[in-house]
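Appendix C reproduces, verbatim, an entry submitted by the partner laboratory led by Prof. M.T., so that reviewers can inspect both the input and the predicted structure.
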Amino acid sequence: MSSSSMNRYWIPQLDIHKKVITQELQYYLGPEATVRSFTRDGEDGFLITTPGPCLTDEQIDDICVKSKEMWEKQAAARSSGASTKVLKRPLHQPVVMSKAGGSDSARRRRENRRRNESRSRRDERRQN
């Protein structure tokens, strides 16, 4: 549809989680409906573009309830601690290549000791 046949509506952001309205909008208004953050007269909200009417009061109430649930889930996840948090990208976990004082350091010390002993023996032979 052309943009001239689309209706645009603004609703305030109050009690609405952006992720929830983004996920729910097309369910309520159809696949052509879009939503984006928009500030109108200094107030944050959402600009909804749709070929038909805007959300009903009941649909907005439903989005507000789902938004509250989303915020509660996020708060619970934060309070449970990061130790149980699963990485979104498990393939990007750090891999230890060397640690200070680890086996690489011990190996280097042994090699340096051997080199120094070899030099000492060489120097002794030269002196004799």
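Strands lie at 7-12, 34-40, 43-50. Additional entries are available on request from the coordinating office.
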